[in-house]
Structure to design on (48 residues):
């Protein structure tokens, strides 16, 4: 994996964590996501 791809993956991970972290618990519940799952969901977003 090259440096540019690693940086883009890191940026996408951080963006996903930030966006989900700004949501209220109720909004996350509506999506079926628990606060403890945010990081694993962000890691999964990198694979897409």
């Amino acid at each position: 994996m090259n440096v540019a791809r690693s940086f883009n993956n890191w940026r996408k991970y951080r963006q996903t964590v930030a966006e989900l972290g700004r949501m209220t618990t109720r909004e996350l519940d509506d999506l079926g996501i628990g606060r403890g799952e945010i990081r694993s969901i962000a890691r999964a977003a990198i694979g897409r």
User: Anything to note?
Assistant: The mean pLDDT is 94. The radius of gyration is 12 Å. Residues 14 and 25 are 19 Å apart (CA to CA). The helical segments are 3-22, 25-31, 38-46.
